[in-house]
Design goal:
single chain, 3-stranded antiparallel β-sheet, flat
Length: 429
């Protein structure tokens, strides 16, 4: 069993994290009466939570934007960062604000609240709203001349076909999606496409990074090809590719190869225990870190979200510099690997050192994403190839116990050697 933490050390940690203890230290999980050094708020935080970065909720809430007190200058800065130029004074977080989009130069009316929540500010740039002038340009480019005012993206729009002179009524949204506006002209065009020479059709496909593996038959018939980007077999139609659509469903993410899905799961620290079915289906897997049986969806893992609630690493920022570290504990006879961002608060290694761990070595990377990918590779090597289990319990160590291994079964030198090998393989890819 680990020794009880020195109360003086615990007090130093609390003070460093902004809390002044008002009573003696009891245990890491006990409520500890303290006073926030910054705002004077009285609270009862647990030492374990404070050690992991938890702070004063009063101070945290004070940092949030107050819609009643935010100034026009601060509000305007937020809108400018979102690509909008305010044209009138700020009135309220839920009030429509007349602005000019710095991208499309159009006048639009976003609310500050929506922008703060991460919504795109310009209705025109996102396609939520269509400028009639832009709609007319799109129709004319499609060889259609409007005969009445624009009424909406999905409303039939009376037009004259500039190729055959017929009157037709396509919706703007049809044309925007690449569909034809005049049926007779479309039938005629389709007939011409179907009479294309095999060599001409193949040239179009090759320009779209698709290598035909059989002779051309018809424009709207599935055509067996090999994608020159991902090397997979696909069946696009010539008409879709000739219209400008991407012919490979794998490259655009609409289809997932089972082998690629398994490789991505393993890269992110999961070992599938059943066949891949669908990106939105629960997929029975074993999480390499903790050994738990979990059921994440493939698209959850693909979007860099956690698939195991027991050991989710919410603190890592995948876009900022990070490091992979090795620490060891002589009393526990245990070794642990882990990752953290370079400027994370609290410092992960320092926190472990307070609890008796000794820092052996660290490896720096450009981003948290690279660090986690390599950490998962190392843990897979430890758990699967070396067949070594988790050494410490959650009760004994707390957060990070899933990354421990018995120092009697492997050495820090062996782990260091494997990490260097993995890093070399990564750089050569």
């Amino acid at each position: 069993m680990p020794k009880k933490l020195d109360p003086k050390v615990a007090e130093k940690v609390m003070i460093r994290q902004g809390w002044k203890p008002l009573e003696p230290y009891k245990s890491a999980l006990a409520k500890w009466k303290c006073k926030c050094i910054k705002c004077g708020n009285l609270g009862t935080p647990q030492f374990s939570n404070v050690q992991n970065g938890s702070g004063c909720t009063v101070c945290k809430n004070a940092q949030k934007i107050n819609s009643r007190t935010i100034s026009h200058v601060d509000a305007a800065k937020i809108m400018t960062q979102a690509g909008m130029k305010p044209l009138v004074l700020y009135k309220g977080i839920k009030t429509k604000w007349k602005c000019k989009c710095l991208v499309c130069k159009k006048i639009t009316y976003p609310t500050l609240g929506n922008v703060i929540q991460g919504h795109e500010a310009c209705a025109y740039c996102t396609g939520r709203k269509v400028d009639p002038k832009d709609a007319i340009k799109v129709m004319k480019k499609a060889k259609l001349s409007p005969l009445e005012p624009f009424r909406g993206a999905d409303k039939p729009w009376k037009c004259e076909c500039l190729q055959c002179g017929r009157t037709t009524s396509p919706a703007y949204s049809w044309i925007k999606r690449g569909q034809g506006g005049c049926r007779p002209c479309g039938v005629k065009k389709g007939g011409i496409k179907n009479t294309l020479l095999d060599i001409d059709a193949k040239e179009v496909m090759l320009k779209a990074n698709l290598k035909p593996l059989e002779k051309y038959k018809k424009a709207d018939q599935p055509w067996k090809c090999r994608c020159l980007v991902c090397k997979k077999i696909v069946y696009p139609s010539f008409s879709n590719v000739n219209s400008g659509n991407n012919g490979c469903l794998y490259c655009i993410g609409k289809k997932v190869d089972a082998k690629d899905a398994i490789a991505l799961m393993r890269k992110n620290g999961f070992e599938p225990l059943e066949s891949y079915v669908d990106s939105k289906k629960k997929w029975k897997s074993r999480h390499i870190k903790c050994g738990n049986i979990v059921y994440p969806q493939y698209n959850t893992i693909q979007n860099r979200q956690t698939g195991c609630s027991a050991c989710a690493n919410y603190g890592i920022d995948y876009t900022k510099p990070a490091y992979l570290y090795i620490v060891q504990h002589h009393e526990f006879q245990s070794i642990k690997v882990g990752i953290s961002n370079n400027h994370a608060t609290p410092n992960r290694i320092r926190t472990h050192q307070i609890n008796g761990w000794i820092h052996y070595k660290s490896f720096n990377f450009e981003s948290g994403q690279i660090a986690e990918d390599l950490e998962n590779t190392i843990l897979r090597w430890i758990r699967i190839e070396k067949n070594l289990g988790i050494h410490l319990t959650k009760k004994l160590m707390g957060a990070g116990y899933t990354e421990t291994v018995d120092a009697m079964e492997i050495t820090v030198i062996e782990i260091e050697r494997e990490i260097k090998k993995v890093i070399k393989d990564y750089k050569e890819k």
